[in-house]
Amino acid sequence: MSCRSGLSSAEEALEQLSKALAAAEAGDDPLAAVLAARSAADAAISACGALEANSQPQTSGTRQPTVRRRVGTDELLRLEKAPSGRTRWVFLQDGPPFEICETAGKGVAMFAARELRVGERVIAERPLVRWRVRRGESQDGRLRSFARVVDALDAPTRSAFLALSQADHLGDGDARGQRTMMGTWLTNALPINYEAAENDEHDEGAVFSQISRINHACVPNCHHEWNASLGRETVQAIAPIALGEEISINYLMPAGRTRTERQALLRKQFGFDCGCTLCSLPGDQMARSDACQRAIGALQPEHGLALSELTKRLEVRMSLMERECMPIIWARPLLLAAMVQSVQEDSSSAAGRERTRALHARALECIRISAGTDHPNYETVAGFLSLIAEQTENTRATPRRTKKK
């Protein structure tokens, strides 16, 4: 393909994509339009890829080929909810937000391919492998359950799974570092039912071909969250990320562990010593950090606490977390407990409704930044906010009755 014909094909494919996206937004058959949009996006990716390949200068002699990560449709298209309430496909013109490459001393890692804003989604990925097991299952039962999952994998999935890293201490028996399916799972799996963990009778986790490449930091710049509505794990920027900066998540949520406790747990579960900024603080600063962490861990929701005590704990916990540069989303259990308690106790007066509204608004912003507006929790809290606003408006519209003398 010549550069001229390649350019023509790419322009034509992008034009078809634009039309398909418009049809998905306003068409009578949105499903067909969405499928057409995805097909057009794939065509655009292929055409632009062919154009890039043909535009590379040809040189004599041998040189190492450039390894490029294939850009998927999900990195050019995003399904989001419009203000009207309808869903729509949005064309991401900024390009893929990340790249995966080798690093010195840390293996494969994920880096920002452009500047990322707070609240921006880095990736939403379907699981490569999922494993669900009954809580309290015996060791033999768990191994049999995992063996069934492994036996059901097709060849490409098995190959992609085994391409992920494995902690050296998770080798098979005496052969430390020997590759095993269970060792790869334990190194890379993330929980995907932790919100329902207390009521669910099962534990469920998943491994991802790209998200599982992200390294740990005790103070990460991204937050990972399972989105049951999408059936995907999402990663969102919770701090500004510069071009070329490594993307990190935390393997040990929630907060509240001292450096010694974090290092012991990371060494046991993942086989590495953490050298992040929080774990590298000098003596006096580390002592203050550990004191903050102990206080954060102690400030948890408890049954029967009054709203005033819940709110006080919430404010102190969030203040300490901000001091430690930790994601405020990790205060969500306490925030949601205070939010629910405020609805039950404090919605009869105008001042009470305002406190309730403020708590809900704070929770909504927290979820928006860390999990996105398409997360089920966002819709739930937004619904509460709408009800509070409606209740306040109805109260203002109802004339007050005066007692007769």
Describe, in plain words, how this protein is organized in 3D:
The chain has 405 residues and is of the alpha+beta class. It has a domain of 84 residues. 45% of the residues lie in helices and 14% in strands. The chain has 11 helices and 12 strands. The strands form 5 sheets. It has a 3-stranded antiparallel sheet with strand order 5-11-10. The longest helix has 26 residues. The protein is globular. About 5% of the residues have low confidence.
Structural features:
globular, 405 residues, three-stranded antiparallel beta sheet, alpha+beta
Can you lay out the helices and strands and say which pair or pack?
Layout (H helix, E strand, L loop, with lengths): L2 H24 L3 H26 L21 E5 L5 E5 L6 E6 L3 E6 L8 E5 L3 E6 L4 H13 L3 H8 L18 H8 L1 E2 L10 E6 L7 E2 L5 E6 L4 E6 L10 E2 L9 H12 L12 H16 L8 H17 L8 H14 L4 H22 L4 H22 L8
Parallel strand pairs: 9-12
Antiparallel strand pairs: 1-2, 3-4, 5-11, 6-8, 7-8, 10-11
Tally the helices. Answer: 11
Span of the ends, CA to CA: 93 Å
Number of strands: 12
Poorly predicted runs are 50-71
The helix/strand class is alpha+beta
Give the SSE string.
HHEEEEEEHHHEEEEEEHHHHHH
Radius of gyration: 25 Å
* Basic shape: globular
Integer average pLDDT:
77
Biggest sheet: strand arrangement: 5-11-10
Largest sheet: 3 strands, antiparallel
Bin the strand percentage: 5-15%
Helix content: 40-55%
